[in-house]
Write a structure and sequence with these properties.
alpha/beta, Ribosomal Protein S5, domain 2, 7-stranded mixed β-sheet, two-stranded antiparallel sheet, 4 helices, about 25% strand
Length: about 190
Amino acid sequence: MARQKDNPGMVTALALTPSGAITARVECLLLSGRGRLILTGNLKGEAKDSGQVALSLAISRAKRLGIDPAEFQRTDVHFHIPGAPTKDGPSAGLAMLVALVSAMTRKPVDPGIAFTGELSLSGKILGVGGISEKVIAALQGGVTSVYAPTESISEMKKLPKKSQKGFKMIPADSIDSVLDLLFGKPKKSPSSR
């Protein structure tokens, strides 16, 4: 997983499925269109909602990210998470947002970085379950860093210290701080102080 070539619009997510924790590739493809959202990859329930929340947050942060907001009105956004297991929880929300911003800004994200976290419409990153299982899946998939909700990171204490060697957990409370770290802080206009 983490050795795959990094392309804009592709990021690594961590998710819980009925068969256990997995690393999954979230792909975001931008198409000429009318602002439609397309979701594929055996997504159900809250996973589908996460795609809509990610799109709404990206639109609300467009100017801050240096994206023309009108771009969203003439672009269809297609999210795809390949693989057989059903994905029905909200934990792919953060990965979907990062994939969309990556695609819109044409800036790739290192595939050795993974993301997990539910999004609120205010831009908060909410806690999710199964962090220790997700970290084990991440380590097996060659991931070296994980952005995860701050409130969920305490679960890491359950893992043996030796399994965490060379591995970095990055606490995430808000999408703005995550997007700043990944894509750079917004440039202030000459009139702002």
